[in-house]
Design a protein that fits this description.
Length: 110
Amino acid sequence: ARLKSSSEKKSSFPPGANPLKFLAMTPTPPQEQSLIQSCRHLLEVDALKVVNNGETEVESDLLYRLTPIGYHCSKLPMDAKLAKTLIVGCILGVLDNALIIAASLSCTKS
């Protein structure tokens, strides 16, 4: 029997998900523009990646996939940019400095 190459293997995971279509099924769906802005924010911090970029030009039809950094950011109860700052700071061995930066960025102006 011939072994399948990695390109021939079928993944049990879907190629990606569309958060707009998924959340549209909720009883009170968020506004589409808010969801698009949230996806853009997560793309900025590399927490999401687009998996069907060339197939559609309509932003609401894009399929997204969570990246490894996105997975870890989702476990922290804070903004994705602050979470990424702490994760990268931990990886680089400068967690103390990353904590100081994240704390100062999370303070609101009074």
